[in-house]
Design brief:
The protein is built from two helices and 40 strands. The protein is mostly beta strands. Strands 33-34-38-39 form a four-stranded antiparallel beta sheet, with no helix packed on it. It has a two-stranded antiparallel ribbon with strand order 1-2. A hairpin with a 2-residue loop joins β15 and β16. The longest helix is centred in the N-terminal third of the chain and has 25 residues, at about 1-25. This is EGF-like domain-containing protein. Keywords: EGF-like domain, Signal.
Length: about 475
């Protein structure tokens, strides 16, 4: 039984393998054989024998295994018959050739060969042949070029009557002859035959429309033209016939009268006329006008003068640098500018004001006070206290005290005590010379003038000053 099973198993495997292989080819439909199974009657013996070999395809071709038979094709960059020989391609389009060549039939060639006519020049631009006739030649560069005649375009002349023909850039140019106008292609005529052919500001002279101002005399001005005629006039300072000659009124100052002493542009004039502003005075220095405002007025004499005002005393500022000007009066009541230094400045306001060192005590050190915008010692050389007293500056004020073995009023006099009953006072002194307060008296002590002294320790002084 076991041997029988071993004999049947290979047959089952072969049947299964044949079914799979048949299934693989049953779904293949090569072009032209749609709907028919090429292997429905089984495989041919040659199907296993035809494979890619060294001689299956031509030179320059490569072979690949297709679904039915080997497939031959030229290698990339080659063309031809893949069964016999493939030749390397030189180009596919113009971009693969040099700028002076073109791609023709997969080869880079000179496109000018046979492209242009006889005597023509050929130039390759971007792989394209461009034909042109050389200088001094004309014609169709694609057929033939010939020597050009410079005046050929004007023979015969394509222009009308009374015209001139000349050649420019091988083209005939037609223009009317001088004194003629119109269309040069159909014919030109005189610019004018009478004044009516010209506009009102011109006259017809020698068949041309010109300005009639040439009719004016020597030195005369042509003011305008009306009805084809010039209107002439002698200029200022001249007199005479404007259609013949105008003579000058003067040629030098000596020829002019005193009320018009200057000879300007051949005319006698007063230099002060319209030289100065409104309300201004004009006086001549020689022949030069000098403008000024009257004594009771101020302003710009070349434009306008006005009566004085109080604000004019400070315009411009007559005071020193940084000083302030204010209109005021002197002792006689006459108006005058008053110069002062502004807040925070000090100095001579007529000369210069300088910014002060301070404006408040807080801007100075504790032992200095702000006096006259300057940080100074409030003791002022120990002149603020009484005789024999000591001055110390604290919190920007002068503090007067009697020394340890002295008594009395520190603002008036400090003296050594010889009595048995002594009292000590302590004063604080301000900058204006007045003390601020009187501190409580130290308890009265009975002492012997020769054996005892009233001692005030630094701690007691500190306590008293704080109080």
């Amino acid at each position: 039984m076991i041997r029988k099973g071993l004999f049947i198993a290979p047959l089952v495997l072969c049947a299964f393998a044949w079914g799979v292989e048949a299934q693989r080819y049953s779904n293949y439909y090569p072009r032209g054989y749609t709907g028919r199974n090429l292997y429905e009657h089984g495989r041919s013996i040659s199907d296993d024998l035809v494979r890619c070999g060294p001689n299956t395809c031509g030179v320059g071709a490569h072979c690949t295994h297709g679904s039915v038979r080997p497939v031959c094709a030229c290698l990339p960059g080659y063309s031809g018959d893949p069964l016999s020989q493939c030749v390397k391609i030189e180009c596919v389009d113009n971009s693969e050739c040099r700028g002076h060549q073109s791609c023709v039939n997969q080869h880079c060639i000179n496109p000018c060969e046979g492209a242009c006519g006889t005597h023509a020049n050929c130039e390759v631009r971007q792989h394209v042949p461009v034909c042109s006739c050389p200088p001094a030649y004309t014609g169709n560069p694609f057929t033939a070029c010939r020597i050009a005649d410079p005046e050929e375009a004007c023979h015969p002349s394509p222009c009308g009557s009374n015209t001139k023909c000349h050649v420019a850039n091988n083209q005939a140019i037609c223009t009317c002859l001088p004194g003629y106008l119109g269309s040069p292609l159909t014919g030109c005529r005189h610019e004018c035959d009478s004044d009516s052919d010209c506009n009102a500001q011109q006259s017809c002279r020698n068949f041309k429309c010109v300005s009639p101002c040439s009719d004016c005399g020597v030195n005369a001005d042509c003011e305008t033209v009306s009805a084809h005629r010039a209107i002439c006039k002698c200029p200022r300072g001249y007199h005479g016939d404007p259609y013949r000659i105008c003579s000058a009124e003067c040629t030098s100052d000596s020829e002019c009268p005193s009320y018009k002493p200057a000879c300007v542009y051949n005319a006698c004039v007063n230099p002060c006329t319209n030289a100065c502003g409104v309300n201004a005075d004009c006086n001549l220095r020689g022949l030069t006008p000098v403008c000024s405002c009257p004594k009771t007025m101020t302003g710009d004499p070349f434009t306008f003068c006005r009566p004085f005002e109080a604000r004019d005393l400070c315009e411009p500022n007559p005071c020193g640098a940084n000083a302030k000007c204010t209109p005021g009066h002197d002792r006689t009541g006459a108006e005058r500018p008053v110069c002062t230094c502004p807040t925070g400045y000090r100095g001579n306001a007529l000369v210069s004001c300088e910014k002060g060192e301070c404006e408040l005590d807080s801007q100075c050190a504790d032992h200095l006070a702000c006096v006259g915008y300057e940080c100074v010692d409030p003791c002022l050389g120990n002149t603020q206290c009484g005789s024999g007293a000591v001055c110390m500056a604290r919190r920007h004020i002068a503090v007067c005290t009697c020394p340890g073995d002295h008594h009395g009023d520190a603002l008036v006099n400090c003296y050594q005590s010889h009595s048995e009953a002594v009292s000590t006072r302590y004063y604080r002194y301000k900058r204006n010379g007045n003390f601020t307060e009187e501190l409580p008296q130290v308890p009265t002590l009975a002492v012997d003038s020769t054996e005892a002294k009233l001692e005030t320790s630094p701690e007691n002084l500190k306590t008293e000053k704080q109080n």
